[in-house]
Records
---
Amino acid sequence: MRQNTIAFLSWIANTLVTVTATLAASTNVLVIVSDDQGYGDAGFQGSSEIVTPNLDRLAASGVRCTNGYVSHPFCSPTRAGLLTGRYQQRFGHEYNPVYDPLDEREGLPLTERLWPQWMQDGGYDTAWIGKWHLGSSPSHSPWNRGFAHCYGFIGGGHRFMDWQPNERQYTLPLVRNGQPLDEVPAHLTTEFGDEVARFIRAHTEKPWCLYLAFNAPHVPHEPTEERLAKFAHISNVRRRRYAAQVSLMDDAIGTAIQALADTDQTNRTLVFFFSDNGGHEPSGSDNGPLRGIKGDVYEGGVRVPYIVSWPGRLPAGATYDPPVCSLDVMATSLAAAGVAMPRDGVYDGVDLIPYLTGTVTTRPHQRLYWRMQHKQTLAMRDGDWKLVRLPDQPQQLYDLANDLGESHDLANERPRLLATLSAALDKWNAELVAPAFPGSTVKSEDWGPGGANQQNRK
């Protein structure tokens, strides 16, 4: 009798392991990244001015992370951290790479193995659609870094409509799986949403992971006239055009999410959404109530709208307040897919699912760190305390629980805490390496086509 009981319990355990593995293997992952979206610029973030019904539905289907962060305050380094699960300064990706297809150094270092490559090990189809901005040489291209299906542009920014394809970065031809295309879509944002929907409808059997990287609402703002007219009530012209761009992106996200529903893949798809950095307010965005903009290590540069949705596995319409980060995407995705985390180096992301479900009640991250300009500008968050270190200035200390806008510097009032946090920041900084490529520096006044941030090198 005892042997039969043991055998039965063993059968149950083996069955549960098999069922768990099957569920994990069937989980899709969709990572959606917007470009320069302001912290307050979505309905689910409280905006009544910019209506985003599709993002609002996505937030209602999952968890809105009120303290969602990215690992850098501007474009390319954030993406490098996202795709590796590591602080990008660990491998020297601290600047935006200059667009130069002949330069084998400018881009995400080839020493790093990327998220889609680990997912491929688990039997996943992989896709990248949208903006790359991680190196333009053939070896740096997405089709050589683990993405089997590729569609988008390789540089750091692009026109949205009515361009003549040429060698300039903002008017490059779109590429599909490495081949340049002649056609110019009616609107790039809409086209990216349609392309994602086509991929989803064509991939209903084998599990997949897809990285959808919009260049909206980054400048140049080129919304359709029809969409611009819907925001005629906004008197500021830049803000109006920006809002229309956000709205078109929201529609494209709705197209992708609808394709999941139409193919019965909603409940087996883990979806992330966040911006790559804070908004650039001179271009029309709004980071309120945060201090700072894109390119700053204040909250307005690194704190972003952040959603995690997995219907049936995560609570719907929930909020989660402890800090989470874009670095967590890889660890969470691999866990959902049943793929073991690599152990070949230091990985900084964590699997968020146990935290978002309440299974684990501690914080995913006690500390988060930022560094830019190679040791000149740094910051860290420890619990609710924020340390900011800027060139040629005294260190600053803020209590984010009571001072979200970082307006009251407490450095002089809390010297012992300041010293403790400063030592921790120095320890983390000592683990990092020097920049691996010279890149292009970010100037807040220079974001559009022809500017310093998207120069070509011949």
Note: The two ends are 80 Å apart (CA to CA).
---
Amino acid sequence: MAETVNFTGAVDRELLKRAKVVAAKSETSLNALFNTELRHLVDTFEAAESAGNQNFRTLLDFSLGKIDDLTAMQTLGLDSQEDLFLLMAQAHLPMPRLPEQVTQSMVEELNALMR
């Protein structure tokens, strides 16, 4: 068995609550969920890197908000956002979140259309 170490990290309070619910419904621990997800991310990244495939790195950069969708699509040679979203799902990566200010602006624009 691999040696475990404790570490300190910060997580959004609401995300932690939701993660605890997922762990409880899965009859597992939050620690086990975290380890499983982190192991999947690292294993997938390392496998792609050792195969010389930079696609996962591009998808991860997009997921982390380091690059936008147009840059990711150009780098991956994609013509549509749908293809990008499918690759994100296949890579088991979450879609990036827009900054709160951008999201609020979009909500206001949609509300103005409804009036």
Note: The chain has one domain: 13-114.
---
Amino acid sequence: MMRNKYIRILLVDYGMVFVLLSLCLLISLLTITDMHPEDTSAARKLAVSLVKEAGSDINVLVVARTTQADKVFANTLKGQLESSGAHVVGVELGNPSTLRKRLELLGQQDERVDFVATHDFSSKWRVLSAASRSEMGSLYPALKGLKIAKPASYRWPTFLTANNLIGILNQNAPIAIMAIGMTLVIITAGIDLSVGSLMALAAVVTATTIQRYLGGEDASGFDVALAFVFAAGVCALAGAFAGVIVTVFKVPPFVVTLGLMMVARGMSYILAGGADAVSIDADSIGALYSSSVLGIPSQIVLMIMLFIVAHIVMNHTAFGRYVYAVGGNETAARLSGVPIAGVIIAVYAVCGLAAGLAGVLDASHFGTGRPKAGEFYELQVIAAVVIGGTSLMGGEGKIFGTFIGALILGVIQNGLNMAGVDFERQMVIYGTLILVAVLIDQLKKKVFKPATS
């Protein structure tokens, strides 16, 4: 009996964790490739290994492109070489043409160059090919022994690079945030099809509020924050309105939120004046999206904090118990004194607020209010919730499961993007995932149906 309990916990409560890990493993195996490091750590290791192998009595020309990352790489490499005792004859930031001129100048000045220290990309320039170096060596004795030094390459999954993993979380944070509100709605046996449109409405409201009422390009950081709060509040009120229609007039949530979806999308276009986007000129608009905490993008931090708060609310407060009670058996919940109408209105308001936060993040990201923002996001949000184990029949679901579901979607999307799969086919896959998740939910109820006496 105890063994069956643990099996149920593993398969039902944490089964999607194994699915997530399996997906990560599969995509990792499919994306193993040669990695060519170009960061500061690679620069330091290259300098140390070069001096260790060739000695400190060497003349080195540091070469890189003109990008900011390459400048950091070159400066780090130069500093480490000099601290290790090597002589750096110069740093060349440019392209193959400028590098050739620099080498020819050094050759004419009879400045001995033993190594060109660079990264893999620049090492493949034609000017640094064996034939080109041999030609320059025959013309300029000082370049006769010129060799290439670059960081060691290694094989590693592209999927498992830090930048890619952070990118997955960052790109899917808005969907994950909206999925928190959607989880509460679906647990009450409802549905909200308006989240994508409310996201667009929040973005456009943010833009129009700043441009028309808060000074436009002269808007301060406080003004921008005020616009964010106002936009998110508008969406929360829209969600509460949907909850009122559902509870007071007993209209099915599908119909109510379908209508709200159309209204919100239409209002987005009306406020935008028919434009594809409303630009935001305030300098501080991008602060929310571009800021970071300990190197972690701020919207990832916000997403994690919201999941933690939602988990605590749903598992350790009376409101969380009420939400489960309404979805499990509304009649029994009413007889137990649960304020049914208040709970349903609250969860739709929370769902609208979550969509508003996603829209605010979108406005901060793009610096515009886009009426087309969030198109088809409701599909991905519902998929994240259902894949995470929340039953569309209501009464069952976990915030942690939704978090895992959102990660699964992010990993799948990342893998499809790496494979070059277009958006339309991705939508087919998301729809299929919803159907599969619903079937799994029904099978779980049959397989793990409690025994009756």
Note: Residues 221-248 form the longest helix (28 residues).
---
Amino acid sequence: MGKTAIILGASGLTGNLLLLKLIEDDRYDSVKIFTRKSLGINNPKVSEFVGDLLKLETFHQDFKADEVYCCIGTTAKQTPDRSAYHRIDYGIPVSATKLCKTNNIQTLLVISSMGANSNSKIFYSRTKGEMEHAVLKENVPNTYILRPSFIGGKRKTKRFGEGAGIVFAKLIQPLMVGGLKKYRMIDAEKIAQAMIYLANTKPDVQVIESNQIEIFGSFEHQDSGTN
């Protein structure tokens, strides 16, 4: 019998790529999407649960799976109110982690961000760091926190300055060697591949920096045979 996966953030760039990969992966029989509005996915593997993710605990009865993939994240432009931003980027991943504990889900993968630090003076980095600390504190057995650098890929909605940022990131890629490798732009597809690889191999690591995500993402592409 195949596995069941839960995705939070399936409407985003990485989450959507992850969804498509899990649909094609024969190790999975079912993919549950928890979302604030329907994505209109018509596939026998996929089940949608629509509601308020800020009240994730209301999904308690349906929040059951082998693995949880949390790809939730917003931006200062999308959510300028800091209180609302904190409820999303901190609150949703932490609520998901607590539901993993309650429902005995053993594997949890969370996308954070490079530079996450609970002691940072930068609100964004501090929020991510506080989220990581709270997630790890719950001690879900197989917890993996991914810290990608600038994420590349074709988004449905363009963000301010994104085009120029991607061009600049590509130009300086060859110069980023040694300790600078973790600052290289990483493709969203590699992140999705890495998450599936980590969930299925369970290496002895919890926090994965961007250059390590790139490596794990290459392994997934080679080993699983999924697209």
Note: Helices lie at 13-24, 82-102, 123-137, 162-172, 188-201, 210-224.
